[in-house]
Amino acid sequence: xKNIGFLSFGHWTPSPHSATQSASDALLQSIDLAVAAEExxxxxxxxxxxxxxxxxxxxxxxLAAVGARTSRIEIGTGVIDMRYExxxxxxxxxxxxxxxxxxxxxxxISRGSPExxxxxxxxxGYQPEGDDHAGMAREHTRRFLEVIEGEGFAEPNPRPMFxxxxxxxxxxxxxxxxxxRIWWGAGSRATAEWTAEQGMNLMSSTLxxxxxxxxxxxxQAEQVQRFRDAWTAAGxxxxxxxxxxxxxxPLVSDIDRAYFGRESMSRDQVGQIDxxxxxFGKSYADEPDxxxxxxxxxxxxxxxxxxxxTVPNQLGVDYNAHVIESVLKDVAPALGxx
Length: 338
Hints:
LLM class flavin-dependent oxidoreductase; Luciferase-like_sf; three-stranded antiparallel sheet; Bact_Lucif_Oxidored; Luciferase-like_dom; alpha/beta; 38% helix; TIM Barrel
């Protein structure tokens, strides 16, 4: 068995060729797709967060709305850029969204990806020491994780407007168990080991910011194993979770073949991100029987407990629900995922 969810970047484009032409479309269709995915039997609805872009940017109103419209499906992010976040304000928002959803929040966070603007986090009021963007993201994360543990730390006013409970006060609302449902988006093997040391789940996408010359899925499988080894070495008592993302398109109709038929020739790619080598994983698009065979050979997919299907959200809710349904019915059972 494997958890299967979708991951949407929430792109919107004011073009007649896009089914998602505005920010309103992107948000409302994201909610509708989560509802449809739950009805189809999918396990998760995840959303990518980018600032200064025509994409989803403010996760917590969306997550709360999805939580209110659904009852079973996990809701999450993949990922929130922690360089932009106020840890205490984020703790309040995350606690509220988790309570609204009944404890279904799976929050993916990270240092973030290359930005749309130069040092966009500075416009949000955050200044790293020197040029240490990653250090600032990790410090924001440290404080966020500390706060959502629920321990009091703020001295109460001796003359408050409303009565206080005894002792130091914590950020409210507090949602029990949320700390164990935080994931870090790791782009390298070393970062995966750091993730384990912090007691966060591992979220790995379709690219790694390093290249050793081996196929992407093997490099990612090594990353997953290093994460699990580091988790054990750190002495954590619970079992961690691991997710990987893939673009998977079963070709079961003429429109599938028109959209993604050429992707059957997809291969790994090596490029550059932030001046360093990166390896990008291939897309999977084929007839269901050949797709099953190809996915069975993906070592990282086999190693993960959760698979996030990256969806082309600008093709609309109905088409993306069709893609999710095709994976769940035409691919997953043959692989033992259902």
